[in-house]
Amino acid sequence: MDPLSCITDCLVEICLMHPLDVVKTRFQIQRCATDPNSYKSLGDSFRVIFRTEGLFGFYKGILPPILAETPKRAVKFFTFEQYKKLLGYVSLSPALTFAIAGLGSGLTEAIVVNPFEVVKVGLQANRNKFTEQPSTMSYARHIIKKEGLGLQGLNKGFTATLGRHGVFNMVYFGFYHNVKNILPVNKDPTLEFLRKFGIGLLSGTIASVINIPFDVAKSRIQGPQPVPGEIKYRTCFKTMATVYQEEGILALYKGLLPKIMRLGPGGAVMLLVYEYSYSWLQENW
């Protein structure tokens, strides 16, 4: 697959799925169900955002993922293959090899995407009309000027991002490759495609369920704090503990439905595009 088609594929997917990402972030940063501004359900969130912020409200913070998605995917799959090769020198079972290589690829990927995530979450949390919020570049400059480039600035929430991507890729790649190798291959190309798609869908869904507490912690750390000027959510596990103590265990799973709706099918498509393009390149190059 040529670079242009890869970029186009990423762009189309982001434009289609970004509204779900905005809604997911909004659910994760809202702290109290009794707050009159809180969303009551997935449908309610779409209605309120459309009514108060307009159609473009669903596309707040879209530029950072547009800029980051193609290099992120390249890092994800390239490092997964490299870690898999390195682990070939160690006596590990194939199941463990896939999982550890996935973990390594997720940790590496997190380093690339975290600054983009900080900017994206801040823009997504803004409930003003799209035309009234700062541009992506001006908001990034504001963060750098006020908080710097470090772990309290453009890289805040770094440990939560490491956890989110590391755990996701560990389950995503580990489950997909292990289950795919267990289930029999179909000779019919259509059935084989559906077999892989189903496994990919399950991989993205299960990975989303397991890693979402890290995602909630990341959104709380990178999003607006409850009291302006006072940092309540600072580190990953302390944030998880605070959310659990104050809001209960289910609060660590806020935004799960839109996350699954985005990363379940999205994860399946991403794996299949990679697999088929990788096979094509091996056959033709």
Low-pLDDT segments, ≥5 res: none
Rg, rounded, reads 19 Å
What does the average pLDDT come to? 94
Span of the ends, CA to CA: 11 Å
Helix proportion range: over 70%
Strand content: under 5%
**Most strands sheet:** none
According to CATH, the fold-level topology is Mitochondrial carrier fold
What's the layout of helices and strands?
Elements: H1 3-29, H2 42-53, H3 63-87, H4 94-125, H5 136-147, H6 158-182, H7 189-222, H8 236-247, H9 256-284
Kindly list the characteristics that best describe this protein.
transmembrane; mainly alpha; Mito_2-oxodicarb_carrier; globular
Plain-language structure description:
This protein has 285 residues and is mainly α. It has one domain: Mitochondrial carrier fold (Alpha/alpha barrel). Helix content is 73%, strand content 0%. It has 9 helices and no strands. Helix 6 packs antiparallel against helix 7 and helix 7 (189-222) packs across helix 8 (236-247). The mean pLDDT is 94.
Summarize the structure.
This protein is mostly helical and 285 residues long.
